[in-house]
Amino acid sequence: MVGSILGPIIAAVFLRAHFLSNTRERESREIMYVPQLVTCLRSYTRKELFSDITAGVVVGIVALPLAMAFAIASGLSPERGLYTAIVAGFLISALGGSRVQIGGPTGAFVVLVYDIVQRYGVDGLMISTILAGCLLILLGVARLGMIIKYIPYPVITGFTSGIAAIIFTSQIKDILGLTTGPLPGDFIGKWSELVKNIGTVNWIAVFLSLLCIGIIVYWPKAWRRVPGSVVAMLVATFLVQCFGLNVETIGTRFGGIPSMLPPLTWPNISLAQCRELLGPAATLALLAAIESLLSAVVADGMTGHRHKSNMELVAQGVANIASPLFGGFTATGAIARTATNIRNGASTPVAGIVHAFTLMAIMLIFGRWARLVPMCCLAAVLVVVAYNMSEWRTFRSLLRTPRSDVAVLLTTFAITVIFDLTLAVQIGVVLAAFLFMKRMADVTQIDTIALPAANSSISARHIPDETNATKRLIPNGVRLYEFNGPFFFGAADKARDVLNIVEGTAKVMILRMRDVPAIDATGLHTLEEVHTNCARSGTALILCDLRAQPMRALRRSHQIGLIGKQNIKGDLDQALERATEIIEGTPAKKQKRSHNVSHVPAA
Q: Do residues 452 and 341 share a domain?
């Protein structure tokens, strides 16, 4: 099944490359899909190698507790987090489009992965991850690497803060050492169960949790070379084993951790399962794309380099297909680990590859000791992660932005926390799109430049035309409008209300469209309605100053023939000449100017 999915994708890549007619475009695409590792190794130096090895080892040590903690928080065994960090981390660095991106499990997936595991089991998660990988490859091949630009910032902040709140809630049980059964999947249910069992607090676990949080937060101020999370894990494990403290450990909950990678395993995938899991897979793919590209953008800002977004998506896709085959789960670019990689001197993807081998070495050599790590220590690691993910300062600042953005932010946050991430992203993006369309409709205006002189209640005004400073003569019986803004479905009603009021004294309606960057099908239909109403009342419709996209749209919809080529002019002067020709029935160049005109000087 995997082959049948990947086959058409690979074939499409080669067919598109083969049929590219433009040589320059072909060359740019070839460069676009070359991994950064290949580019960097062409001029690799010994100094860069030393820096990359140092950074890779440090990041590998940092990733150790995080990988296990994210797996546990996702409802999986801790070794699956290590498998993900090793396999996906290696492939993302080896094939990716960023020089310093570090891949692996992240907090952004915790909520979604946990929900998939509860609904469909581990096998369902594996299939969803493989499908998500295929979708990511499709996104990269379709050159949609700039997808991050189309996700509104309030949506990203809303669901990121919501995920942080859920991660924090899921760790309270281990932070306090509560004795409860399995916690419910919903946010409110979790809090209800926690409150019911608050009397079972283990104060030793509370002490160790606070100690670990303090070490994680303050240790980097003393010595950055050794990660605070690793120091906290070692200290907590030492105290528990030396003093025989009664707290839950990885061993008591999950048993031991294997000291090697599992063999390659192909899951049984059916077409029915693919249909059922396509929705969760699409959400995984979208979230992986957003997280990885955000991380790559952050890395670009720190290093001054530019990443290849499409190549990055392809690498993320390959990593998410391979990870489940070796017992892992969903992976993406990790912002915090990428920043740590950069701060420790990494300059090429070699650092990310070293990070993966470091994790493998630790698992092979020290894996059997991981069962001694207290659960409250890993919970403390995730609490700090949740605090950093919450971006509460950014959240607070967004509350002072326009009300529409605040509505998107709070709606996305609330739905993420109370319902689920999939619904939150969908509703957040749709709500932001609707609000954007409303803003565009609000800024789209139709200005009345001149009305027929016979209408004494409204007089003609200046024509704001910076391209021609001469005075314009607006013949009696001509109505002149100027359209400003995109002529799309959101502004169609406004245009219809203004333009369809046809008065008997108007013989010609001129619609100036120099500030209309684009028109859609609804706008074209509205123009057709206006033309029909004008024809019914004996008024001629003239369009002028059309830009490239509206002119193409008129040609494709055959409205040029409907309106008449002679009634579509390049500028306002030509449109006025055509209006005079219609009114007086003589060629505009040969007729004499009538004294009965409105003098409208240009601005």
A: no
